[in-house]
Amino acid sequence: MTLASEAPASSGQRRQKLFTAINRSAAWLSALGLGWLVPLLKIAAGDDPREQMGELRDSLFFPLMGIAVFVIAWASLAPQVQTSLGAIPGPAQVWEQTAALWQDHLAEREKEAEFYARQDQRNAELVAENRADDVKWRAYTGKPTYLDQILTSLKTVGLGFLIATIVAVPLGIASGLSRPFNGALNPLVQLFKPVSPLAWLPIVTMVVSALYVDASEALPKALVISAVTVTLCSLWPTLINTALGVASIDKDLVNVGKVLQLSTATTITKLVLPSALPLIFTGLRLSLGVGWMVLIAAEMLAQNPGLGKFVWDEFQNGSSTSLARIIVAVLTIGIIGFLLDRVMFTLQTAFTFSGKR
Amino acid sequence: MASTASWAAMLDLEKDELKFGFIKLTDMAPLAVAYELGYFEDEGLYVTLEPQANWKVLLDGVITGSLDGAHMLAGQPLAATIGYGTKAHIVTPFSMDLNGNGITVSNAVWELMKPHLEMDAEGKPVHPISAAALKPVIEAFEAEGKPFNLGMVFPVSTHNYELRYWLAAGGINPGYYSPEDVSGQIAADAYLSVTPPPQMPATLEAGTIDGYAVGEPWNQAAVFKKIGVPVITDYDIWKNNPEKVFGLTAEFVEANPNTTIAITKALIRAAKWLDENDNANRAEAVEILSRSEYVGADANVIAASMTGTFEFEAGDVRDVPDFNVFYRYYATYPYYSDAVWYLTQMRRWGQIAEDQPDSWYDEVARSVYRPDLYLEAARQLVDEGLIEEADVPWDSSGYREPTAEFIDGVTYDGTKPNAYIDSLPVGLKTGERVEGSEVVANQ
Description:
Chain A: It comes from Devosia salina. Chain A: Keywords: Cell membrane, Membrane, Transmembrane, Transmembrane helix, Transport. Chain A: It is found in: Cell membrane. Chain A: This is ABC transporter permease. Chain A: It is a multi-pass membrane protein. The complex is a heterodimer of chains A (about 350) and B (about 450). Chain A is mainly α and about 350 residues long. Chain A is about 80% helix and about 0% strand. Chain A has helices at about 5-30, 35-45, 50-75, 90-130, 145-175, 180-190, 195-210, 220-245, 250-260, 265-300, 305-315, 320-355, and strands at about 80-85, 85. A two-stranded antiparallel sheet of chain A has the order 1-2. In chain A, helix 1 runs antiparallel to helix 2, helix 2 (about 35-45) crosses helix 3 and helix 11 packs antiparallel against helix 12. The radius of gyration of chain A is 27 Å and the shape is globular. In chain A, about 30% of the residues are buried. In chain B, a hairpin with a 5-residue loop joins strand 12 and strand 13 (about 315-320). Chain B is built from 19 helices and 16 strands. Chain B is about 40% helix and about 15% strand. In chain B, helix 13 (about 255-280) packs across helix 18, helix 14 packs across helix 15 and helix 16 (about 335-350) crosses helix 19. Chain B has a five-stranded mixed sheet, sandwiched between helices. In chain B, strands 8-7-9-6-10 form a five-stranded mixed sheet, with helices on both faces. Chain B has a two-stranded antiparallel ribbon with strand order 5-14. Chain B has about 450 residues and is of the alpha/beta class. The interface of A and B includes residues 122, 221, 316 and 317 of A.
């Protein structure tokens, strides 16, 4: 073998490998919402651009067109609606407020640093005066910034979703396995599924306040109230899909389990869960979507910290920048909702793959 | 910032991490100022300020202890202590301000009122405007079978009593409360209902109410948004009337005496700063209040009333130098007579259903208003050289001199509440109570 004869062959092989890799990652990329990268990567890897154009048009050009049309329509229509707070803000004003909120965040962090510097100085003085016993360390008392509110909301929805999953999956498995249990649970599911978070909130507030007396720093009462409200509204899709997934397990599998005289625990972990997982994940994904949607309403009504409170406070402020700030929040809520959905979809894809393997 | 000296003198605090509630109104300014200028920190207090959705939520927060204290309507501690609405012993060592409210009507109502107004040589309406000009409008509404709805912020709010006072002085019955019917609309000509302050403009715009009584900046906001016209300020209804107070539960004060004094000290300093050198700091105060975590309205809207003027009809800007008073005229001292006035109005409109002797008014006032705490805080501030000896009414009996500076000229003497109630034109008198939908004499 000479080097000259090997070179083209190996570069061809390498290209082949590259394409296989791209094709393999295509499913992942599209799960992450980055499907438009695939044709771009292929072009970069040396594929004929013309072949990839059709793909690129569908996955990148049309979506961008949609967004562009929306932004143009927004920019031209918004100024024509006069509210008592001035015209509805267009994309430029909203972008301005996004920057302002970021500046706010930086300024608040600076104030926080100054606060701690003052505290340090004070404590140093006390130590110098031989009053070390009087030294105190206190947490910063400033307002939560927009980023803090986003984090609080994510924490709340996470907690609510976690409780929902812990409640819904076992219930779903039980009602999937047992027809009598399913019969008993079904009317309750049908009854409570359509209830709005705004109706749950007063009950949840009273019950949580009564039961959760010694609130800890890390888990304030307000957060628990919002989270439980989210739970009550979002657990239904997981419950129903889990039940459905469990009920539709291959009967042969179940019979094999019976023949092998597997214990209930083993049956559930080795047989039921693996085959029901794809549907359970579909349920979880729907639940998370519902939970995120419900959260904002719960926070707005209960005045609990988070994005909902931000929106409500801005509505109450009624300043000339309030509408633009609320729109920033709306877009943030949308983008985070989309990202959460993508994360769940990716997880689901992962488990569906393993199911097929 | 804090000097070492004031640190050495610092009180031994029982609790130094505190959460205070407030409503988005310019009269919460002493709280924002005490926080931003470091007065709380000077006293060793780590205070978090949190806006509340409405007065009910705020009061419940203080009662349940999720808030340590709050910017409150003067009527709230009194009503809670006598058990009207909620039952809880709430006290106040600090009165937050004088004046600061207004009554606004929708543009449509203003147009209907205009023909009944007296005009001056320049063609501008003569102020103060009497509710008598509103009477024909309400009659026109009635003839069409439409209710005339007005908004106020809470059943025991200053605004409820001011609006009722103004309406009654103009010959309009704002309706009575009874133990069975707490809507406050018994036998009413105009129907008053509750709307939280920041929602007033939006509710007026939506047409749910035809006018409202609220604190600033929500009257000036109506002018800026071109949705309504303020017709009168509370300064013209009762010159230098006491308004908000800082409320704490009696249990908190008992468990944390030094902390209470420290809070009061910081608030007195903030009030002084707000009025210092002929309101020289007001522009800075406006900037602080316009931040989204406090009032959050546009700075020019807040400035409209905070800097000595008040805009009525668009373009009709008038000087009202005392529209917002935080420190002058002993504004921060909790006078018993202020408390008694609120109690007389509760009796007048039936929230207090039965007659009470004069001594009862005095007792309630003394259990809620705590000038003793105020004076202790003030004494320390004088000793630290932070306020003047002359800024504090050291020898006051707690009762202001009788005054007749009301829109209807009736004299108020806080030591004779029953005689005062009987001298008011509309309202329950001694020996009367509300039964069903009628005012009847006690047997």
